[in-house]
């Protein structure tokens, strides 16, 4: 809930600055001859409190003369326009003043603006936003632990990836051709024949097994419009010159986060898991130069 309160300040241009010991109550009218503020020496700002019922910011004490509310900047995105009607509610001691005013010269939050009441009197004022102190993300249920929900919160990813695949291919081919004939010439009678044949048999088998079990802490980088969390993180471990890097990126549903603020990698949508090592052990486990050359030529 956002409430808007008008904190009334000092007089307009042409009016002498009153002594700081003379209080100017919030809501007190000032006969103005111009619509320009007087640059008086800033005194102290009043103590503010938030009225949950009305949704307005109220001043707990009068504003002393010469206070420059232009220094009060809360939310520069909020502004009021000329001709807009506002309800002014201000606390002066135990009493409360409430009146309808019209904006004469608009401005943004924290900037000086001017309003006119029904009697035609002009006030110098500053627009201040009152934020509700209740934030749903900061008040979890009593029976649950706090889980990551805001940008910048950390979350533990348990990477448990197991993959096994097997592919067997077998082919066999046989072919035979028989050709024969006979020759008779006088007393000569000869038979001749030719038999041609060939065969091919091939078998290929590929087996692959992968297992990755680790955990790392990632950070919530962004919150999508549907409430899903975009997480990313990187971990680097170096042991005896052997370096291992692991990076995780993806989308996590808040409902998949466990009570210990962790989530399985299988629950990450669009997961990008990068696991790489560098060092003596990694180099020793790879094929040598000759093996790589034979593999490139198709001989290995």
Summarize the structure in words.
The protein is mostly beta strands and 300 residues long. Among the domains are: 17-76, no CATH class; 84-132; 153-162 and 208-277, no CATH class. The protein has helices at residues 280-284, 289-296; strands spanning 2-8, 23-24, 48-51, 56-59, 63-64, 79-80, 85-92, 95-105, 107-108, 112-117, 122-131, 154-185, 188-223, 229-239, 242-252, 262-264, 269-278. The strands form five sheets. The chain has a six-stranded mixed sheet. A five-stranded antiparallel sheet has the order 1-11-10-8-7, with no helix packed on it. A hairpin with a 2-residue loop joins strand 12 and strand 13 (188-223). The protein is elongated, with a radius of gyration of 41 Å. The model is unreliable at 1-52, 54-78, 90-96 and 128-135 (pLDDT under 50).
Compact description:
With about 300 residues, this protein is mainly beta. The chain has helices at about 280-285, 290-295; strands at about 1-10, 25, 50, 55-60, 65, 80, 85-90, 95-105, 105-110, 110-115, 120-130, 155-185, 190-225, 230-240, 240-250, 260-265, 270-280.
**Helical percentage:** under 10%
The biggest sheet, with number of strands, parallel, antiparallel or mixed sense and barrel status, is:
6 strands, mixed
The secondary-structure class comes to: mainly beta
Uncertain runs: 1-52, 54-78, 90-96, 128-135
Averaged pLDDT, please? 62
| DSSP strand content | over 45%
Count of individual beta strands: 17
Count the DSSP helices. 2
What oligomeric assembly is this protein in? single chain
Shape: elongated
Largest sheet strand order: 16-12-13-14-15-17
Roughly how many Å is the radius of gyration? Answer: 41 Å
Distance between the termini: 71 Å
């Amino acid at each position: 809930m956002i409430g808007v309160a008008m904190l009334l300040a000092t007089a307009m241009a042409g009016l002498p600055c009153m002594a700081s010991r003379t209080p100017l109550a919030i809501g007190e009218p000032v006969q103005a001859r111009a619509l320009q503020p007087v640059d008086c020496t800033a005194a102290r700002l009043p103590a503010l409190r938030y009225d949950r019922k009305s949704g307005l910011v109220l001043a707990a004490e009068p504003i002393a003369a010469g206070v420059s509310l232009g220094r009060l900047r809360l939310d520069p995105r909020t502004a009021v326009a000329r001709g807009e009607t506002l309800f002014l509610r201000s606390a002066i001691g135990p009493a409360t003043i409430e009146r309808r005013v019209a904006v004469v010269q608009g401005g943004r939050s924290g900037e000086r603006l001017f309003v006119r009441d029904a009697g035609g009197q002009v006030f110098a004022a500053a627009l201040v936003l009152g934020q509700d102190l209740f934030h749903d993300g900061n008040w979890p249920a009593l029976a649950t632990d706090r889980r990551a929900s805001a940008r910048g919160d950390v979350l533990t990813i348990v990477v448990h990836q197991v993959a096994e695949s097997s592919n067997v291919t077998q082919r066999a081919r046989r072919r035979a051709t028989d050709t024969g004939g006979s020759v008779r010439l006088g007393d000569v009678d000869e038979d001749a024949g030719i038999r041609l044949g060939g065969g091919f048999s091939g078998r290929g088998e590929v087996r692959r097994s992968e297992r990755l079990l680790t955990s790392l802490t990632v950070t919530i980088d962004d919150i999508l419009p549907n409430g899903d969390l975009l997480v990313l993180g990187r971990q680097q471990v170096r042991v005896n010159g052997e370096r291992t890097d692991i990076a995780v990126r993806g989308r996590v549903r808040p409902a998949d986060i466990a009570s210990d603020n962790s989530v399985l990698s299988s629950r990450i949508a669009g997961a990008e898991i990068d696991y790489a090592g560098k060092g003596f052990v990694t180099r020793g486990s790879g094929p040598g130069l000759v093996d790589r050359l034979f593999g490139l030529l198709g001989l290995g």
